[in-house]
Amino acid sequence: MDLLKKVKNILLEILDISIDEIKENSYIVRDLDMESIDFLELAVSINSEFNINVSDDDIFLRTLRESLIMAKEAKDISEEKFLKEKYPHLSCARIDEILENVDMGPVLKVADLISYIKWQYESKK
């Protein structure tokens, strides 16, 4: 199954952009200009296409900034470890990248959606 192709097709149906604009490393908001209303449609489409339970907070990293605040307040756990526990579908390298770029705006990438879908499939096994 080519997850990237399927996710691209879902994004094409939601956004008014060309397929060439959608790359695995494209930022969903920063590069593809997705708006908050589009996220609902994206969640429904992913749920339908892949038959997985979509948690908006997890797949869209909605509570990422609040999680970082909680990690800083806890002081007994690093931000990296806290985020890895909160978002097990993200690799350690991706979490490090997010932490480096969090001040630049929304950090969700197409690759993060794919990682979440893969993680959901593996969880079903």
- Percent range for helical residues? 55-70%
Average pLDDT rating: 91
Instruction: Give the domain tally.
Output: 1
CATH structural fold name: Non-ribosomal Peptide Synthetase Peptidyl Carrier Protein, Chain A
Number of strands: 0
Unreliable residue stretches: none
CATH class: Mainly Alpha
Order of helices and strands: HHHHHHH
DSSP helical segment count? 7
How much is the radius of gyration in Å? 15 Å
User: Percent of residues in beta strands?
Assistant: under 5%
Shape: globular
Second-tier CATH architecture? Orthogonal Bundle
Output the structural class: mainly alpha
- CATH homologous superfamily heading: ACP-like
Largest sheet: none
State the end-to-end distance.
16 Å
Polypeptide structure, described:
With 125 residues, this protein is an all-alpha fold. It has a single domain, classed as Non-ribosomal Peptide Synthetase Peptidyl Carrier Protein, Chain A (Orthogonal Bundle). It has seven helices and no strands. Helix 1 (3-14) crosses helix 2, helix 1 (3-14) packs across helix 7 (110-124) and helix 5 (79-86) packs across helix 6. The model has no long low-confidence stretch (mean pLDDT 91).
